[in-house]
Every structure is written in C-alpha cells, then in structure tokens.
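seq:
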Amino acid sequence: MSTATARAGALERVLAALEVLAAATLISAVVVAALGHDPARTLAAVLHGAFGGTEAIHATLVETVPLILAGLAVALPLRLGLFNIGAEGQLVLGGLAAGLVAAVAPPWLAIVAAVAAALVVGGAWGALPGFLRARLGVHEVLSTILLNLIAMPLAGWIVSQAWAKADGDILQTAPAAATLPPVYPALGAALVLAAAYDVWLTRARSGLTARAIGLAPRAAHVLGLPVARGIVLSMTAAGALAGLVGAQQVLGQYGRYVDGFSPGFGFTAIAVALLGRGSGVGVVLAALAMGALRSGAFAMDALGVAPRETAGIVQGVVILTAAAVTARRLGGVT
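struct:
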C-alpha cells in the first residue's frame, strides 16, 4: 500500500467518524429535548462527570479500558465484513474461565494461567460462529446472538453447580489468588494492542489480505485468498480479545468472577467499532467517548439535570446512527 493511499484511507475514516459524531450529537440533542431536558445542560453535566477532576477522569478510564479491548473484538472481524455481535458472551465466558483458574491456581501462576484460560475460552467461543460461517454459511449475526443467549445462563449455571460462593443472591467464585494491576497499566496494554492492530492492518501481509477479503469477498475467493481461514481466525482472535476483557474485569476490578459483572461492554463495543471505523486509533477515541458517556451519566443524575437512564438512550441513538451511516457508505469500513 502506498503512503498516499494510506493517507487517503485515514482521511476518509476521520471524515466518516466526524459525520457519525455530528449526526449522533444532533439526533441525541433532539431526543434529550423531547424527553424534557435541556441538551446543553445535559452535555455540560456529562463532561463534568467524565472529566471534572481526578476521580472523574479515573472513573472514565475504568469504563474506557474494557471498551477499547471489546471494540477491537468487534472491529477486527468487521474488517473482513463480519459482525461479531457475540463479544458479550465471549467476554463473560472468558471472565468465568479467568475467575475459576485464578481461584485454584497458586499465586505465582494465577495471573498467567487465568489470562491464558480467558484467551482460550473466549477464542473458542468466537471460533464457533466463525466455523459456522466459513463452512456451513450460517450468518455470524444469527449465530453470535444465539451464542450470547447461551453464554450468560451457562456461566451462571456453572458457577451455581460447582464453584459457587454466594454473597446474598450474588453468585461468585472464591477470591482470586492474585489480581491484575490497577487501571493505568491495563490502559497502557490496551493502547499497545490498538497500535499493534493498526500496524498489522496497514503493514502486515495478513492484515492487507483481511482488508481485501472484507472489501470484495467473492473476488478474494476467485483470487485464491484464504477466505474461510480468514473468517475463522478473525472470529477466534476477536473472541480472545473479548475474553481478555473478561479477565481484566474479573482480576482487575472484582478480584473474582461475579455473575453479571459486565454492564454490557460487548454490546457497547458495537458502537465503539462502528464509530472508530474499524481502526485502532478510532476505536480508542470512540471508547473514550462512550466511557465518558457512561461515567458522566452519574453526574447527570446527581446534578438533577436528567436521569442517568438518559445516557442509555443516547448510547442507543449513537449505535443506530453509526450503523445507519456505516450501512449507507460503501458496505462499511474501507
């Protein structure tokens, strides 16, 4: 790929992201006004809650880190024309695997073994819809949605049947023998992965092949590119990234697996990937924006500007707007 082509593609993604952001902001303002709230005051409250001090920034980063990793888990298959709607189930099962392993492993091995387990289990859960799409033609949207419906109750059942340690009505595993560092090292790791993803996507031969498959799958098949293998590998890698989110939350935020630990990171990741136009830098910026919206929602409620549920409505508007704009443009990302 020439430098000029790469710059043109980057500019196109920036313009597309700005288009989505402008449209989502306008529509969100209309929706907030229709709900009887002042859009300007609502935005000011969100910004204050997300960035108005050290504690607010810390809370925003806590929300942002898992969204970066989960966003990459959706963005990677998106490059091959695949929609990974199953990141939520993949991260839940990955988190469960991490929690179970960390509860029984010796402290010196707990972190490595738990993260490895999360990568393997999340990757396997992602590989299944990839195989179904590549070999049997089952659309990944359908299969990942159904696998989400299986993953959540399956995780709860496993914990309740074997390693449960109930705290009231909450099912959870025993405490992990070791935990991950605070959010800032995790943020650094997420940024490194996002940068590595961009380098792979624009410089590595396999990354360029993935983009070719996504742009013209039929032509890629005629040219002899490994379309089926690319589908399976991309969904496997996506599941592993989602599983890493589960490990980071279970070992970094809770210190054990807690049933229902994810507030929907895998679903919000869809908006993050679409807003980020499938690039690592875009995913980081979109994750920061969605993380700020999540953390700022509490300030809206506390200041009496709007109930925090309004943030969920705005998030839904952003997802629908991003999906609509992406669908209108040439089949998605380029």
